[in-house]
């Protein structure tokens, strides 16, 4: 009996403590946060919302597409591979290979490229530009 | 080949894409499937007659159905093997 009463009182004390502290602590914490935001907004730019775009940089996208093409078995002449390479003229890929490359790009960035737009992608540069224009590319 | 008719070209590419996608689960492996699919499409690259191309697309659609059926059969056999222990 004595033990349960002790425990209960202890629990109540624990529960009550933050409740009493909260009204005092909260405005202080909040105002300091707002001040910090006003003074140094750069510190908060690292925080990103879940709804924000992935924020891929051009180099990142280009690097990933290049890696993907490097591993593609039909690309024999890797030396010709650069940011401006044309799939057909430089890399020697035909239209069927291009479809495969576009599919691989879709998978890499977890997006779906409609047929119309997929048909317009003929070079590394076009692919990079397309990915950069997509807000939901990862 | 399809430079005369862009819609047919789109159709061919779309069906190629669909077939490629279906091939990921192919029992003999994706590589086996991909090379054969490519060969099948590349062998028809000189076809210029529209009716012929349409026929080819229809054949591709038929093959698509067949592959789906193959997957169902594979699943059915796998399930049967597990449940029909004699």
TrEMBL record, chain A:
Location(s) in or outside the cell: Mitochondrion
Record key words, sorted: Electron transport, Fatty acid biosynthesis, Fatty acid metabolism, Lipid biosynthesis, Lipid metabolism, Mitochondrion, Phosphopantetheine, Phosphoprotein, Transit peptide, Transport
Keyword Phosphoprotein: yes
Record-annotated Carrier domain positions: 59-135
Major localisation: mitochondrion
Domain of life of the source: Eukaryota
A Pfam entry, by short name: PP-binding
SUPFAM superfamilies reported for this sequence: ACP-like
Gene Ontology MF: a single term: acyl carrier activity
Annotated metabolic or biological route of this protein: Lipid metabolism; fatty acid biosynthesis
InterPro entries: ACP (IPR003231), ACP-like_sf (IPR036736), PP-bd_ACP (IPR009081), Ppantetheine_attach_site (IPR006162)
Keyword Electron transport: yes
A Gene Ontology term for the protein's cellular component: mitochondrial [2Fe-2S] assembly complex
Role description: Carrier of the growing fatty acid chain in fatty acid biosynthesis.
Family: Belongs to the acyl carrier protein (ACP) family.
Protein name as annotated: Acyl carrier protein
Biological source species: Bimuria novae-zelandiae CBS 107.79
Lineage: Eukaryota, Fungi, Dikarya, Ascomycota, Pezizomycotina
TrEMBL record, chain B:
Domain of life, source organism: Eukaryota
Record InterPro entries: Complex1_LYR_ETFRF1_LYRM5, ETFRF1
Pfam family, one: Complex1_LYR_2
Family label: Belongs to the complex I LYR family.
UniProt-listed GO biological process terms: negative regulation of oxidative phosphorylation; respiratory electron transport chain
Protein name: LYR motif-containing protein 5A
Species this protein is from: Bimuria novae-zelandiae CBS 107.79
GO CC field: mitochondrion
């Amino acid at each position: 009996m004595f033990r349960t009463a002790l425990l209960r009182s202890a629990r109540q004390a624990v529960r009550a403590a933050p409740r009493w502290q909260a009204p005092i602590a909260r405005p202080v914490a909040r105002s300091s946060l707002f001040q910090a935001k006003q003074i140094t907004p750069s510190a908060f730019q690292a925080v990103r919302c879940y709804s924000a775009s992935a924020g891929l940089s051009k180099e990142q996208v280009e690097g990933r597409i290049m890696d993907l093409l490097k591993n593609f078995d039909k690309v024999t002449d890797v030396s010709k591979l650069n940011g401006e390479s044309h799939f057909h003229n430089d890399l020697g890929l035909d239209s069927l290979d291009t479809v495969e490359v576009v599919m691989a790009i879709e998978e890499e960035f977890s997006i779906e490229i409609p047929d119309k737009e997929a048909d317009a992608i003929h070079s590394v540069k076009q692919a990079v530009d397309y990915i950069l224009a997509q807000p939901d590319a990862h | 080949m399809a430079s005369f008719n862009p819609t047919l070209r789109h159709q061919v590419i779309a069906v190629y894409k669909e077939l490629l996608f279906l091939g990921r689960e192919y029992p003999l492996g994706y590589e086996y499937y991909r090379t054969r699919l490519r060969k099948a499409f590349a062998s028809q690259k000189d076809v210029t007659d529209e009716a012929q191309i349409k026929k080819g697309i229809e054949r591709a659609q038929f093959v698509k159905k067949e592959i789906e059926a193959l997957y169902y059969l594979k699943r059915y056999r796998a399930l049967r093997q597990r449940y029909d222990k004699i």
